[in-house]
Amino acid sequence: MTERFGSGGVWEDVYGYSRVVAAGPLVWVAGTTATRDGVVQHVGDAYHQALYAFRAAIAALGGAGATIDDVVRSRMYVVDRANADAVGRAHGELFGAVRPSSTLVVVAGLIHPDHLVEVELDAYREPA
């Protein structure tokens, strides 16, 4: 059984995707940024954008019955290599005890010019 969950984000309906998709024990959280109601939060601050995006992604897991402890992989996309340490530090603060497999990639850009980081999470829920 596949379940799909939206967050009401401005791009979900327009671009045709779900914030979270769960299939059996697997849960995927779509790319998440520091955007609330279409407004980018913490402009110019990669560390706080990363914290905001990760917290939003972790909250989205809850809709599918998963928690931060279920995260098995994380991905971080940054638009400037100079922000890698700040984003990595935010990841470490939130996921240090969980220690998921992780990737941090420098990309040419994100959907909004004020986005400095975008994150994705994959999780595994123990079957009930």
Structural commentary:
It is a single chain. By secondary structure, the chain is an alpha+beta fold. It has a single domain (2-124), classed as RutC-like (60s Ribosomal Protein L30, Chain: A). Helices cover 27% and strands 32% of the residues. The protein is built from three helices and eight strands; from the N terminus they run βαββββαβαββ. The chain has helices at residues 12-15, 46-63, 84-95; strands spanning 2-5, 20-23, 26-32, 35-36, 39-40, 71-78, 101-106, 117-124. The strands form two sheets. The chain has a six-stranded mixed sheet, with helices on one face. Helix 2 (46-63) runs parallel beside helix 3 (84-95). The radius of gyration is 14 Å and the shape is globular.
Write a concise keyword list for the protein shown above.
single chain; 128 residues; alpha+beta; 60s Ribosomal Protein L30, Chain: A; two-stranded antiparallel sheet; globular
Radius of gyration (CA) equals 14 Å
Per CATH, which architecture?
A: 2-Layer Sandwich
In CATH, the homologous superfamily goes by the name RutC-like
Oligomer: single chain
Number of domains: 1
CATH class: Alpha Beta
**Strands of the biggest beta sheet: in what spatial order?**
1-2-3-8-6-7
**Average pLDDT number:** 95
Within the CATH hierarchy, at the fold level, what is the topology?
Answer: 60s Ribosomal Protein L30, Chain: A
Quick rundown:
The protein has a six-stranded mixed beta sheet with strand order 1-2-3-8-6-7, with helices on one face. A two-stranded antiparallel sheet has the order 4-5. It is built from three helices and eight strands; from the N terminus they run E-H-E-E-E-E-H-E-H-E-E.
